[in-house]
Design a protein that fits this description.
about 140 residues; mainly alpha; about 0% strand
Length: about 140
């Protein structure tokens, strides 16, 4: 009986947390919808961050590419290896920042550099094009 009661409480708690998260996300989306200048500013900041990250990652990977090709035969400037390398560089920078500032560690916080590395790795070809990275142009 007690196990069934705790099971119902668990489902209610998970449902409440998910409902609160969706409410926060919808509120942020509505806020950005009603304040187009704020949305434009955030998109410009995001674009600048991705371009600066791309330049740093490109510099590091261009330096590491001959070393990795000679020792392992891996081209880190293309394909899945580029994506993995971007994630590893992002995790390394994030870890160094955490060690310098002495912040508290959490497993969920490592999702941020993983998503950032994925974003840079996946947008790599778009950033290199002459038009550059165009975030939110079709909004």
């Amino acid at each position: 009986m007690l196990q069934m009661l705790f099971g119902m409480f668990e489902h209610a708690l998970v449902g409440t947390c998910l409902a609160a998260l969706s409410l926060v996300l919808f509120s942020l989306a509505g806020l950005l919808r009603f304040f187009p200048r704020l949305a434009s500013f955030l998109m410009t900041c995001l674009r600048g961050l991705l371009i600066l990250s791309f330049r740093l990652y490109h510099l590091v990977l261009t330096f590491l590419n001959p070393i990795s090709q000679n020792s392992m035969g891996i081209d880190v400037l293309s394909g899945y290896f580029r994506l993995i390398a971007c994630i590893l560089i992002s995790l390394t920078i994030f870890t160094v920042i955490f060690l310098v500032f002495g912040a508290h560690w959490s497993g969920w916080l490592f999702l941020i550099p993983i998503v950032h590395g994925l974003a840079v790795g996946l947008a790599w070809d778009e950033i290199e094009k002459p038009g550059g990275l165009q975030l939110g142009v079709k909004i």
